[in-house]
Amino acid sequence: MEGTMKAVLKKNLDRGVAIEEIPIPQINDDEVLLKVRAAGICGSDVHMFEGAASYKIFERFFPLVMGHEFCGDIVEIGKDVTTVKPGDRVISRVAHSCGDCHYCRSDRMHFCADAFTRIIGLQKNGGFAEYIAINQQSCILMPDSISYELGALVEPLGVTGNAVADSGLTLGETVVIQGPGPIGLLTLLHAKARGAGKTIVIGTSKDKIRLEQAKAFDADHIIIADQEDPVEAVKSLTGGYGADIVFEASGVPQLIQTALNMVDKTGRVVLEGIYGSEGTVDFTPMVRSAKKLIGTYGGPISWERIIAWLGANSQYAKLPQQVITHRTTLDDAENAFERSVNKENIKELFIND
Ligand SMILES: [Zn+2]
Ligand SMILES: [Zn+2]
Fold first, then answer.
1. Domain check: are 163 and 259 in the same one?
2. C or N terminus of the chain, fewer CB within 10 Å?
3. Å from CA of 176 to ligand 2 middle
């Protein structure tokens, strides 16, 4: 397709983004042109907006169109494309795998060597634009029951579903979620769906609307960390022992130690935040109490399974109304990121009509 389109770009590591008119991408033979209909702002996009130190490794890909949580309509296909057609509604994977490397051959496609050279929104142009060219293998067909808004939530639902799977959560275990952003809230949903016992969500007084939604999702206890000591509060809610599992979803490196301090002996701390900088942990007490520190990044639950789960449980059709508090346009990107930094939103989407 000829012409230009609006896009949200990161051009350097300074705080902020650029909103520019750039050429509509030309597709390769194995690619499709997707008209982006809904694209969500992820916590990692917020780090990128702020120019976090850990994003320096992606500087060589700038100028880069941001965004990796999106879906839309196929408007054009390359001549070798056989799996999808114009008019199909699809969710885009974050990267497509080669099918042939060490990881692809051992059911860990999400660590494919090739995929890690072409992550959409980090190493390749992303979905904060009107159009994007993506490989046909990146397309996941959306059933009619999945709205565009719900489609844009499939990536964070995949991240959080896999975090809960990686935690090994078993029926009735006490779960703490530290950080009530979209990742924390969706982790709460998955933990409940998998049979968690008592659930405790920790935020700060800045997280008001996010903690209200945690309550609406039936969290048993809310802890405001700037009003009471969160470690003491978790201990007093767990007979003095600590939680079975703590999901660290704040992305604040100093809070990894806090999470370890509030988990029971032999308990698990699952790190699902992306950290803007390095953190430190006192390992000896962790070793002496056999606590487990688990990183999670993708995993056994495919996005297709997430779609199947959403489709089979009609209560999740209203998930967009519950967690998407703001819908805006690409022109408003600067404000949208500021709202995210200030935690005025839960999930915010860019919508293209
Ligand atoms: Zn994301
Ligand atoms: Zn591979």
1. yes
2. C
3. 35
